[in-house]
């Protein structure tokens, strides 16, 4: 219950997000386009696993899904410092950098999602970028704890593989950290191509940050149905999603949603116009059959994973209803 309480009360705030209309057309992804994301979905899920199991490739279904993977380095404690890993995938011809997200079994990482404000980027990790570019201070703090280690490991992986492509992946908070890496790393690795694939990506920075990402980062961020994490922190607090949204529909089809915070009801900002209309149980997936979270790191049955997830999310649902009722008692206008 502590997980649910921390998550909801640290992130909800006022509930209605301001959106900017877009006239661009929304298109469906083909089956082959969807399946192309699957190896990276497993790589994002792998980031929840203990570093030792990633290094020896004993992390269960996620490691089994990418048998060509060659680990280079891994670290973090899963609490104060998120798990991370770097490796090589010869079949995909890319270096992989993975960041752990907000695992329900860990409380401390969720605290990085609350008590936040926008701040300028660190000049050491983001040299030469305009001071108008601002990001979530807690995301930036967490990123700074491992940025140099991950950069060093990425250099080693590039040298060993002779590849010129780095793919950064993560889910939830991990997606935010991957996005920050995708802005920082190119400053130190000229001539290398980067692409970022995030799952359940929260809003990371302000409009200037989103504009920079749109112009300089090859980003796809995949949102699952009514997951409300991609629409927080709120736009009223100055946060904006970058382009690149792929939104999974209730029928499990995937749509490409162009623009920043596309308000179409088939996209996250339109589908989840308030936190109360969202569903936290959609946050961990499935993403084309891939579930995020620490439970997937073990060789357990799908039934066991589903049962555990259902128990967690049912508890969250009750807490959310109580939180909403409490908020209405104190400020009945805040959800209007």
UniProtKB/TrEMBL annotation:
- Name of the protein this chain belongs to: Fungal lipase-type domain-containing protein
What GO terms in the biological process aspect are recorded for it? lipid metabolic process
Q: Where are the transmembrane segments?
A: none
Record SUPFAM superfamilies: alpha/beta-Hydrolases
Instruction: Tell me its family.
Output: Belongs to the AB hydrolase superfamily. Lipase family. Class 3 subfamily.
Which reactions are catalysed by this chain? a monoacylglycerol + H2O = glycerol + a fatty acid + H(+); a diacylglycerol + H2O = a monoacylglycerol + a fatty acid + H(+)
- Keyword annotations: Disulfide bond, Signal
Q: Name one Pfam family in it.
A: Lipase_3
Which positions carry the signal peptide feature in this UniProt record?
Answer: 1-17
Residues forming the Fungal lipase-type domain are 98-235
The source organism is: Laccaria amethystina LaAM-08-1
């Amino acid at each position: 219950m502590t997980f649910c309480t921390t998550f909801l009360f640290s992130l909800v705030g006022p509930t209605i997000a301001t959106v900017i209309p877009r006239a661009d057309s929304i298109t469906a992804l083909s089956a082959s386009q969807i399946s192309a994301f699957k190896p990276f979905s497993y790589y994002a899920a792998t980031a929840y696993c203990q570093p030792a199991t990633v290094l020896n490739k004993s992390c269960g279904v996620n490691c089994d899904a990418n048998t060509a993977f060659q680990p280079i380095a891994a670290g973090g404690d899963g609490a104060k410092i998120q798990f991370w890993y770097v490796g090589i995938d010869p079949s995909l011809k890319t270096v992989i950098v993975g960041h752990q997200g907000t695992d329900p079994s860990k409380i401390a990482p969720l605290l990085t999602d609350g008590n936040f404000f926008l701040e300028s980027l660190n000049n050491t990790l983001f040299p030469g970028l305009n001071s108008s570019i601002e990001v979530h201070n807690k995301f930036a703090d967490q990123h700074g704890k491992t940025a140099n280690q991950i950069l060093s490991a990425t250099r080693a992986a590039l040298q060993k593989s002779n590849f010129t492509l780095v793919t950064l992946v993560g889910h939830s908070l991990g997606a935010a950290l991957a996005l920050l890496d995708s802005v920082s790393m190119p400053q130190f690795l000229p001539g290398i191509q980067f692409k970022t694939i995030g799952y359940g990506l929260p809003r990371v920075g302000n409009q200037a940050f989103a504009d920079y990402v749109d112009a300089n980062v090859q980003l796809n961020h995949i949102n699952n149905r009514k997951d409300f994490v991609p629409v927080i922190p709120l736009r009223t607090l100055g946060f904006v999603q970058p382009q690149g949204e792929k939104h999974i529909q209730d029928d499990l089809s995937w749509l490409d949603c162009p623009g920043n915070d596309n308000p179409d009801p088939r996209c996250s900002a339109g589908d989840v116009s308030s936190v109360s209309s969202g569903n936290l149980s959609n946050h961990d997936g499935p993403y084309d059959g891939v579930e995020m979270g620490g439970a997937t790191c073990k060789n357990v049955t799908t039934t066991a994973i589903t049962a555990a997830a259902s128990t967690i999310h049912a508890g969250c649902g009750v807490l959310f209803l109580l939180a909403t009722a409490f908020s209405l008692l104190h400020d009945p206008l805040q959800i209007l």
